[in-house]
């Protein structure tokens, strides 16, 4: 099938069109299932495995925030601090940089939970804390074994990231261990945001699913029955993901996303073309 066509309408005029490629482990595809790209933040539940392997007393909020691309909400920042305390580390130990428009310095970066989990994984395994983001560090070597990507790049937060195909991305979260799945489903608001995050909304709307969005218009999800799905906006626009996911999974709740102006008024919509 052709890539999913998502339109952005303001009033009666279509202002933009996004093409979204999608694939499922059931063999369905829209667009190019061999499209290659980097996994970016969609693989955070896999990057969290060394952290979870290192402890038998982790609470759901600690695991969920290690898998998160958070919005610096108070509960999310509190969870990052909790993981840092477990690691015996401070905000200064975080190797992510600053993120424009975010509070609390490096703590407010949307990847700080992942970085805190990596520090705690190093502490549990007796690995050096720094430089934990280096490709030669034992932590990153362990993660590379788990992801087995085609090519290696550097993510926006400085951590190595790995490329895969669309169908490969559909399989990624199907390998998420049960403990991580349970924590993500127990605390979905920590993984994304209290409102407005497509990954959080899928986990709230449908039983059995875990989900994680990534940069450049990427979205991966997996069901406890073994099914996996991945979506990639060709132009990197994440606003196309909700409506495209609605088509792929039959999620009527996400089929139409409103377009707001600066006054909070609805002035248009984003939806997939039939």
Helix/strand-derived class? alpha+beta
Residue-averaged pLDDT: 97
Beta-strand content bin: 15-25%
Low-confidence stretches: none
- Largest sheet entry: 8 strands, antiparallel
Helix residue percentage: 25-40%
Number of helical segments with 4 or more residues: 11
Distance between the termini: 13 Å
Q: Compute the gyration radius: what is it?
A: 18 Å
Model description:
- This protein is an alpha+beta fold and 274 residues long.
- It has one domain.
- 33% of the residues lie in helices and 23% in strands.
- The chain is built from eleven helices and eleven strands.
- Strands 1, 2, 3, 7, 8, 9, 10 and 11 form an eight-stranded antiparallel β-sheet that branches.
- Helix 3 (60-66) crosses helix 4 (74-87), helix 3 packs across helix 5 and helix 3 (60-66) packs across helix 8 (178-186).
């Amino acid at each position: 099938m052709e890539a999913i066509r998502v339109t952005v309408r303001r009033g009666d005029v279509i202002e933009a069109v996004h093409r979204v490629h999608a694939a499922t482990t059931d063999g369905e595809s829209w667009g190019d299932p061999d499209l290659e790209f980097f996994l970016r933040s969609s693989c955070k539940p896999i990057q969290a495995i060394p952290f979870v392997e290192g402890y038998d007393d982790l609470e759901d909020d600690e695991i969920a925030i290690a898998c998160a691309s958070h919005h610096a909400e108070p509960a999310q920042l509190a969870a990052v601090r909790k993981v840092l305390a477990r690691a015996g580390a401070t905000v200064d130990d975080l190797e992510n940089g600053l993120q424009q428009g975010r509070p609390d310095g490096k703590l407010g970066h949307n990847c700080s939970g992942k970085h805190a989990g990596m520090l705690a994984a190093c502490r549990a395994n007796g690995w050096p804390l720094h430089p934990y983001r280096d490709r030669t560090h034992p932590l990153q070597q362990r993660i590379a074994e788990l992801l087995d990507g085609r090519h290696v790049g550097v993510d926006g937060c400085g951590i190595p990231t790995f490329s895969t195909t669309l169908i490969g991305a559909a399989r990624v979260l199907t390998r998420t261990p049960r403990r991580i799945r349970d924590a993500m489903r127990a605390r979905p608001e920590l993984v994304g945001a209290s409102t407005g995050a497509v990954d959080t909304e899928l986990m709230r709307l449908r039983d059995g699913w875990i989900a994680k969005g990534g940069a450049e218009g990427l979205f991966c999800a997996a069901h406890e029955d073994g099914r996996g799905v991945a979506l990639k906006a060709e132009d990197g626009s994440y606003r196309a993901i909700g409506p495209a996911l609605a088509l792929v999974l039959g999620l009527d709740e996400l089929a139409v996303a409103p377009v707001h102006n600066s006054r909070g008024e609805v002035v248009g919509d984003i939806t997939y073309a039939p």
